[in-house]
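U., I forgot to send this yesterday:
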Amino acid sequence: MRGVGLIDALIAIAILSFGLIGMTRMQGRMVSASTDAQLRTVAMQKADELLNTVLVDNANAGCYTRPSPGACGSSLAVARATAWAADLGAAMWVPSTHTVTLDAATGRMAVEIGWTAREGADARLLRVVTDVR
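Result:
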């Protein structure tokens, strides 16, 4: 009966090891979910920022379409749209894409911002649509 204490200790260490591995995996998933939530928040803020700018300057709504401006007569509006795109690239710390479209018939503007948070993850897409008439 001399090795029973040693066997008990080894079993306890094995159980503790499995518990620690589980906690580590859970923490990794929590960090991933938190990162995705932060990126979604930034994308939403940037989309809202552009749409609010267009609502204030709705006479030049076509100038804010991306990747290339639509029918536009205001170089200031094009400069604002270009600055917004640069700010979006800086705010999203992962590679991202963006598209801004305007349906002239209905006056609806759609902002789409896409990103992939980490390699091998599913692509994310945020789409915000509003009436800018």
